[in-house]
Amino acid sequence: MARTLNFMQAINEAIAEEMRRDPSVFVLGEDVRVSPFGQTAGLVEEFGEERILNTPIAENAITGAAMGAAMNGMRPILELMFCDFSMLAMDQICNHLGQWRYITGGQYPLPLTIRTAVGAGMRMAYGHSQSLESQFIQAPGLILVEPSTPYDAKGLLKSAIRSDDPVVVFEHKKLIFGGVEGEVPEEDYTVPFGQAVVRKQGQDATVVAFGFMGYEALNAAQELAQDNIAIEIIDPRSIVPLDKDTIFESVEKTGRLIIVEEGRLRGGLGAEIAALACGDYFSLLKAPVQRVAAPMIPIPGSPVLEDLYLPNKDSIVRAVRRVC
Amino acid sequence: MSLSNAKLLELYRKMLLVRSMEETHGKLLQEGKIQLMGHFGTGQEAVAIGVTGPLRPEDILFGTHRGVGEFIGKGMTPKDIWLEYLGKKAGPCRGKGTLHLADRKLNIPGLVSSLGADFSMAVGTALASKMRRTDQVTLYYVGEGTCNQADAHPSMCMAALWKLPVVFAVCTNQFCELSYMCDHYPTDDVAPRAAGYGIPYEVVDGQDIAVTYEATERAVAHARRGQGPFLVEYKTFRMATHFTGDPGHYVNPEEREQWAARDPIDLCRKKLLEAAVITADADQKLRAEVQAEVDGAVREGFAAADPTVEDLFEDLYSGKGVL
Ligand SMILES: Cc1ncc(C[n+]2csc(CCOP(=O)(O)OP(=O)(O)O)c2C)c(N)n1
Fold first, then answer.
1. ipTM of the predicted structure?
2. Fold classification of A2-185 (topology level)
């Protein structure tokens, strides 16, 4: 039986169910008892203060503490409130977390889930708005996922909590605050890593859209349909591992590839997929690969400027038109 | 003195092993047989062995870059250390850690590259020990220089706030890399910082193994009783330079001589001879035996198989294959 849940409820439910299932799962982070955005709200009533642990404001140190707990039999879920703040913990995340299992010769897997919020458009200016996923893709040993529906939010988070590898889950603020709803089964399920979904079928161009950008792509599809351009929209769901098969099976059909992300252009997720396309899949392409991403500037505080900064339906339409 | 003669002898043997391991490392470097640089803990053996001596097998140790002392102290064998140092497949980290020693069977979770990144990890292992209702203690062994990393503070704060079973063992060896401690600290001691978090502390002589052992024993017992963290600062002197490529021109030779007169191994030997726990002959034999153990470990290390290209992509994720 499925019910309708919003994005935030789906996250909350995933955590609660995993905590009931496995006593080694616990939550830590800054103000997770009250919960700044609401994803962990109410959990302290059921699970108590020991398993819903408020921490000092010290991102690198709480990440290290979570890693230590993971080294010693626990499965922590760490909240790094804003993805921007995760940069304070990049020593732990990039230098240690992803690499620990390897440098200890497999002796110390770190089953740690980090949840962090990305996304602009909330008028939070330069330091609380960035989508910094691409900062993490150079770090070996991490799994990176970004859900865009309540179903995926719950299913991917459950996979993350059960994974023996460290996982970073990027939650878009527009999905958290915007209350996007969707069907979520009552029964236990997970969404596996590395499996993309085709959100809309089409034969003219393949649009790979990460996270919230999938919604912008759906809007773009409507506009393009008026000109009889049918785009195929793929939601990768996992950034690492990336479901190359689904993406390039689609490109084989369409011959055109557009990658859309909310993060910045240079060295972004699009650059990585474009490089794959130019290498292993070059023969499939009928047109140059297009990247839609944010410009290489800070996110401006002005609402007008912020809207200009953000990739959206219009920039996707323009990119598709360049090649179709 | 609560330390039995048998225990003292055991600790003495470990100190000899540490010294011999590091001297051998230095020799291999000089002979051009290896390139692996060393940061030796010569003169600090009583701290490294004293802080690990009171630990139980299930207790967790975070060690430092300075030599092999605490790793030997926690039970790593010369053989495992050399297998790892030489990057061999049979090393505990399968040759992927080398200087970054980790050994799960001994509860040694690893050695970080960025100083102080493990401060908070030690808080985390202690948090898990408490949450899992074990009476396991984490010992965080750290140099005074590293205690200036920002994370030292939230780590001590969390440890005290959550009353965690962690002992902060600060080895004050007078140097922080290529400079004296006074370039790094406005105070003589690091330990009083603990008071800011309500953490009890002691400052002790780091040259006398009985003192270092017993101070650690008290701190560990405090943590194990559920009374929360404890900090011990051990005063010693780095007789080695910072690393094997450092000529150490900045070291004051007179001061070094003064400390050399209180070499921890010599002090311990004197005690053992005076108490007739060993004879001079037995001591000679013991030293030869220790050196033979190290030489054997080095030989076995060199003879062991290197990892292959197949190993290159192993151990990154728990699943098979490269992503
Ligand atoms: C984050 C970071 N900064 C600098 C270094 C370089 N470094 C290695 S050892 C060392 C000195 C550490 O001093 P201390 O903690 O007192 O330990 P000691 O070397 O005296 O044993 C420095 C600066 C490092 N490894 N990591």
1. 0.81
2. Rossmann fold (3.40.50)
